[in-house]
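Q: What would this chain look like folded?
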Amino acid sequence: MTAELVRGQNHTLPQTRLEIRVSAGSPVVAGATLGDERGTVRGAEWIAHPASHRVPGLEVSRQAAADHRLAVDLDALPAEVHRVTVVLALPVGAGRPVSFGAVAAPFVAVTGLDGTEIATFTLTGLDTESAVSALELYRRQGAWKVRAVGQGYAAGLAGLFADQGVAEAAETAAAIQEAVASGLARSVTPPPRTTEGERVRHPAGPAAAGAQAPAPPVPEAQPAEPLGDPASARTEAPGGGPIDYAHPRRQTSAPPPPPPTAPPAAPGQPARPVAGDATGWSMDERLYNQIWGMFEDLARAVAAYRSAVDFAESRMDQELDRALSDPRNRIGGAGDRAREAARAKRDELTGRAREALERDLAQLAAESAVVEPALPAAYAGWDNPVWHAYRVPMEIPMALRLGDLRLGEAPDLRIPLLVRLPLERGIWIDSGRTASEAAASTTGDQLRGLAVETAVTLAARLLAVYPAGEFSVHVVDPAGSAAGQLSPLVGSGVLAGPPAAGAEGVASVLAHLTRRVDLVQMAIRAGAADALPPDLDTGEHLLIVNDFPHGFDDRAVTQLRYLADEGPSVGVHLLMVADREDARAYGPVLDPLWRSLLRITPVADDHLADPWVGHAWTYEPLRTPQGSRVLEQVLALVAEARRGGRR
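A: My prediction, written as structure tokens:
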């Protein structure tokens, strides 16, 4: 059965030797790019196009045409290739269409060598774009899948190649168009269109029947807070600008594939989940990439389900409108039969969608069950036994777990929310009342207390994952209102100093950290890092600010904004506990501050936005188990290591 995909859905490929057929109402240039595990195209030699129509495992058409056939042999691809992206572009020239909005929607089909269709995709909704990533074949847990992408680029091939990491994107795009225009590729007359009886194409098919969902998140929508940095995700924001979730200081060369750790599953059975079953230079990086792969799969699965349900409802409404447009059918048995038939079809489609979703969720739940116990301390929840064997590390991990993410369709399945280290932006724990059910059942005082507790646990995690003496925590609590919640940090002796109180304490701490940022920045600009004062602590610093803006005058507010903007680049990070309403007197002056911080909540709240698929992910903070002393035990070990380092 052919899977009729809509944008973002995926489908398992039953074979590795394939043919990709493209049909368009106007001549188009068809090509393909090869990407590594991050989707990065390493150079022009990884691009197949009319002027260079063959790369290992892939052959494309040598001309611009209204009909194309691309040959793919996934087994013949280089080992470092994890993605094959089919690219369509309009040839430039006088009299030619300048955007896909001016031509018929292209149709793409993935078939076997015998012509049997495996999956199809109609690229609807294009407007000003002159190039588009149509389909993506990608490797997931040793199996290949096809994903309907439909990502358009108004900047043409140059914008598309730049988004895929091609170093000389504009030059490569110009060379392709020049080859097409100079006669290396020539246009042909489009073939006769098939009759409606030969193929029925739905704008959004009942994808439920086994498809998953639109591609990653991620990672920036307002008012909801954008998600963090899935390592493999590269997408485009609603405003049109690219969002690159790859950490700028990570290696870009291909990491080795994971070693085989489990026998392959039987034919027709889902792959057996294995912890660390992703590419990476270390087990931590493999687990990191696997977690974001799970995040992407859950996003796609739920989006496919929602899309299929919406399609089923829309189809039922259309069928009822057609059946009941005749007044004679509105009463009597004919109308009742039409309603029953339409509802039965709706129920059938939604049932198939639910079955597909349940299969995907079961596989993800099985994967989560083996991944969660294998996580290192930096990625693990406080209830993970790894904390009972905790030792102060010798090096900084690549990421830190801030909490969990979940969706309403899978309330029991939680995906860790990981952020790269060192932190690239500050964090704001919103102590104000939100519209969430959890916040509605909590009083204002309780929310403020939970917000400070969340800040304490985050600070403890940061202290625990850094080597001894390489991370310092400062606290500003002007009114002393958080003394109880701060007691684990104060009592263990891990703070750089007692919590600062009053306006004078606020000014002193801000002046100290502002001076550090200024000195380090000047040293970096002058190339004189060895000229820093000997008493300057060059480690990472975290400033916890409670009850903002109490105790802050205009100068202190300016310094705080400066630390939020300039501090992360030189190792000074901000963790604010605040209710934005308390600072409303400052008006729009503080808007840049709030926008610069990653907003999380002390209770479950669905405020983290996924701009690609439109999900509002529910964030849940990490809590220590009831009655557990794990936080105090970890902080005691950190304090002991810090004292040992000072001797």
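The two ends are 71 Å apart (CA to CA).
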